[in-house]
Amino acid sequence: FSIVLILIIAVASITFYSEAKEKKKILLAEDYLSAKVYLENDDKNKAKNILRTIIFANDSTYSTLSLFLILNENLIVDQRELSNLFDQVLENNKFEKEIKNLIIFKKALFQSNFISESELLETVKPLTNTETAWKPHALLLLGDYFASKKEYLKAKEFYMQILSLKNLHKELYNHARSQLIFITND
Questions:
Q1: Which phi-psi region, left, alpha or beta, contains residue 169 (left: φ > 0; alpha: ψ -120 to 50)?
Q2: pLDDT tens digit string along 162-175?
Q3: DSSP 8-state assignment for residue 114
Q4: CA distance linking residue 111 with residue 109, whole number of Å
């Protein structure tokens, strides 16, 4: 009798948990769509507040979509707040490896205009120290970052790393090669 009772409670608990999780997902989807409607109606404040709430709901799909929508629509201009939202999404959600790496790359790309060299290097470290599809993009970002600061020796180092990668997309290879030619001629 005890075993049957425990099984019934376990099945009921699992069912309740699954239904609650599904309801949460549906509510987040509805909130996300509401935010998009507010944006279409030029009510950016309401949209921004809804999207922030979704980010802190810690749903890997809708938190990420909300962050990207905030970025694309320039709803938040405070760089520190946006960096904190990136951290919130990265630290509180589970992603497949390459999706997480994409978000890290987008964070580095966003921050490259205002953070220090050491902070940028720390941000892209997970991409440059592993084999990922985003490694060449991170190296190119670093090369371009240093080239824009006229630190050509550092830029050259990252462009050379790109050229040494196997199975590199032709556009990335050509960009790195043309930047090296530009540095050499400058």
A1: beta
A2: 999 998 899 999 99
A3: T
A4: 6
